[in-house]
Amino acid sequence: MNRLREEQGTVLLLVLVVITLLTALLSDFAFSTLVDLRLAESFRDRTKAYYLAKGGVRFGRMLLQEDNNDHDSRDETWAQAISGYPVGDGVVSISIEDHDGRLNLNRLVTSQGNTDVVIKERLIRLFERLEINEGADLTAALIDWLDPDDDPEDLGAEKDYYLGLANPYQVKNSAFDELPELLKVRGFSPEIYKQLAPHVTIWGDRLVNVNTASRELLLALAAEMESEAADAIINARQQSPLTAIRQLKDLPEMEQSYGFIFRYIKVSSSSYRVTAWAETGAGISTLKADIKKDGNQILYFKVD
After folding, report:
1. Is residue 198 part of a domain?
2. Domain end marker among 158, 192, 226
3. What is the pLDDT along the chain (304 residues), one digit of tens a residue?
């Protein structure tokens, strides 16, 4: 009788063990299924957000193609940001900025590998207007980062400097692909980058759109540019966008400055950045596209 009871107890214990194992297995399976479901939902939402943002970029490109007048300014349709516009079960925000109202850093060095003296001097003056010290040193370091040789400029830095860092890397010796690359150039701290970034770009030509340029950049156009002249340009464009360079000649404040800057300015833009942000469910996506207006060409595309 005792033996029978022992066998029954053993069987009961085995049953309890099996039930416990099955319960644990089912719980683990249920949890894994829930995780997989959440991951699938998250992937679905991110994918939807990506394509929604991509549609925002396409819409921005359409706005630029529809803008066919002879000037570009911040009061035009393309420059009016769209924020939180509902589309389906998500929202999209779109903003467009022109590159030509900024100084193109890639133009510091010509396609032949030579320094563009006009752009160099303009950049040094911009550093001064922004009260950034050692502008000549920073400009020299930029030239060495861009030019194809390994011969350092006076005050510059080539491969020996970068390879001698605690965490060494190669000097690029070619054009910037993205503006944040500035942070890799000797002397460019996050603070300096933050100050400089609103006034510079890596796209566009040598000419600056006076309809969209900052006051600091207007003052940096030439050594002879006076504060009164820059303020006169800003006041004039606020009244009505400038549609021809010769309009500046009629401003009394431009009498001393016009002859020094008219060759380096324009009233239109040719390249832009379209930024589209979208959110749907748990998915968020930000796309940035640099666009050349002529031919609706994508110069650079990035997913953040």
Report:
1. no
2. 192
3. 555 455 555 655 555 555 555 565 555 555 555 555 555 667 788 888 998 999 999 999 999 999 999 999 999 999 999 999 998 888 999 999 999 999 999 999 999 999 999 999 999 999 999 999 999 999 999 999 999 999 999 999 999 999 999 999 999 999 999 999 999 999 999 999 999 999 999 999 999 999 999 999 999 999 999 999 999 999 999 999 999 999 999 999 999 999 999 999 999 999 999 999 999 988 899 999 999 999 999 999 999 8
Q: Where do we find the tokens 């050349």?
A: 292
Residue type, 120: K
Strand ranges for the chain from DSSP E: 82-87, 90-98, 103-104, 200-201, 208-209, 265-266, 271-280, 283-292, 297-303
In terms of residue numbers, what domain contains 121? Answer: 114-192
| Residues 119 and 95 grouped into a single domain | no
* b/e per residue 217-254 (b: at least 16 CB within 10 A): bbbbbbeebeeebbebbeebbeeebbeebebbeebebb
CA–CA distances in Å: residue 221 to residues 103, 235, 267: 10, 18, 14
Are 75 and 119 found together in one domain?
no
Question: Could you tell me the pTM of the whole model?
Answer: 0.84
